[in-house]
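Reopening this ticket.

The earlier resolution said the output was attached, but the attachment link was broken on my side. Pasting everything inline this time so it's all in one place.
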Amino acid sequence: MKRVLPAIALIAGLALTGCSGSGPAKEEAAGEQKSAAAETPEAKQLDEAQLKKIIESTNAGGQSFKSVDIGDASGSEAIKALESAEYEPAECKDLAMSALNASESSNGTTLAGASADNTLSVALMSLADEDAAGSQLKNSTKIAEKCSDVTIKSQGIEMNMSYETFDATVDGADETVGVRANIEAGGQTVLNTDTVTSRVGNNIVTAANIADTGDENIVPDTAAAFVDAIKNAG
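Inline output:
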């Protein structure tokens, strides 16, 4: 299990990247925020305390969730392995590491969470306006295109991760993007995971499975539960 931690960390990183800015996309979002601010009233941006309350009071798939400090994760064994691993293409490592620092690199408020049984992850981001949130959502598709096939070498093991987008529907969301990943090591499948990222107003909800659950609806259902929670909070 320890040897696949970098792959699991990469999944978490790419899940959060859907909620973070990177390069031109971030600059574009900033420009759109300024334009929107001049034309429309400022949307209600949720703070960290509100996002934490949403994560810890929402149940999905029979699971409760706990908030996770992304900063604390930087010292974990998985993240250390992620930092020292070799990637091909190399830019995918930059995307993953940028994602794990999403709360610092973006203009929004970001908080992550995990289910009580550690099979599901969720990331919430609240931005200044809907245009900025829409730009962030587009990053999920860009990542799937740039990192459709990734090779990771870490701890003496070579892993391959392939990505593809899929049609995902989340009730109550304004728009949704789905990304499916397959992880292989030693010629065998280690994990299949789905990431569903939805926009609800000026907020982004990202849900992903970080273990095989056997339920193909669990990720979109989890996203839907948090979309409802965001709408009720707003």
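Reporter confirms the inline version is readable. DSSP finds nine helices and nine strands in the chain. Residues 1-8, 14-41 have pLDDT under 50 and may be disordered.
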